[in-house]
Design brief:
Elements (H helix, E strand, L loop, with lengths): L4 E5 L6 H12 L9 E5 L5 H7 L5 E5 L16 H6 L4 E4 L2 H7 L3 H13 L3 E6 L3 H5 L3 H13 L5 H6 L1 E4 L13 H19 L7 E5 L7 H5 L6 E4 L6 H14 L3
Parallel strand pairs: 1-2, 1-8, 2-3, 3-4, 4-5, 5-6, 6-7, 7-8
Helix pairs in contact: 1-11, 5-7, 7-9
This protein binds 2-phosphoglycolic acid.
The site of 2-phosphoglycolic acid has 13 residues, from strand 8.
């Protein structure tokens, strides 16, 4: 059984005090005992303080990015060792905004995936086609290239099983118009089938998420699909009540 997961990607939103306020409000929400894994990915600035605040909660911490070298002359970058030391367990890699605005390549994503696992963290590999690629019928091709380059060097069975893949069609991110759940399910199935061709039965353990305009109102359309194990959420994850509502919805949908 794959545990459902809801991930908050705050992007470049919320100051330190706003981030702390979120965690305080979230702890007042009724989500205790839910079987849903809950991960928040705040700004780097907020990570150390939130790492302390979430100790008494079921929240887990993710970073929105990292560099693949452990240390060195890389001005402005954040090392995986810095993240691991404060208790960061997950790291988003290859988000479309990083690919588009900061030139992150498929090969960069592959290096980050390797490094994350080597240092005991779990990467959340984002893949997704843009509007033009979708119209040209290239969705599967784009996703296949992004995914297979990202996981090319993963040799350990344990790492493969812990991998998280988020299918995030670029045209659905931040637009208020999500993909249709049945279409997202088709892409999720092709992600699993690509992994199956490469890794065999291990692919059945990999959690595949959907992201792009997910909200408390629509989240269970996606998690109701048997091949979709959760959601990566931007805008609707910025309010504690909304994040909690999504977790409760998924929990209820899974019979929790
Ligand atoms: P959104 O962002 O939920 O605001 O569409 C999702 C994401 O970019 O991860």
């Amino acid at each position: 059984m794959r545990q459902p997961v809801v991930i908050a990607n705050w992007k470049m939103n919320m100051t330190l005090s706003e981030s702390e306020g979120f965690v305080r409000r979230f702890t007042g929400e009724e989500v205790a005992g839910s079987g849903v894994e809950m991960i928040i990915c705040p700004s780097f600035i907020a990570l150390p303080s939130l790492a302390v605040m979430i100790r008494e909660t079921s929240l887990l911490l993710g970073a929105q990015n990292m560099y693949w070298e452990k240390s060195g002359s890389f001005t402005g970058e954040i090392s995986p060792l810095m993240l691991r030391e404060i208790g960061v367990r997950y790291v988003i890699t290859g988000h479309s905004e990083r690919r588009t605005y900061f030139g992150e390549t498929d090969e960069d994503v592959g290096k980050k995936v390797q490094t994350a696992f080597a240092l005991g963290m779990v990467p959340i590999v984002c893949v997704g086609e843009d509007e033009e690629e979708r119209r040209a019928g290239k969705t599967e091709e784009v996703i296949g290239r992004q995914l297979l380059t990202a996981v090319t060097d993963l040799e350990q069975e344990a790492d493969r099983r812990r991998l998280l893949v988020a299918y995030e069609p670029v045209w659905a991110i931040g637009t208020g118009t999500p993909a249709r759940a049945e279409d997202a399910a088709v892409v999720a199935a092709s992600v699993r089938s690509l992994l199956h061709q490469k890794w065999g039965e291990t692919a059945a353990a990999v959690r595949i998420l959907y992201g792009g305009s997910v909200s408390p109102e629509n989240i269970t359309e996606f998690t109701g699909e048997p091949g979709i194990d959760g959601a990566l959420v931007g805008n609707s994850s910025l309010k504690a009540a909304s994040f909690a509502a999504m977790i409760r919805a998924v929990n209820a949908e899974r019979g929790g």
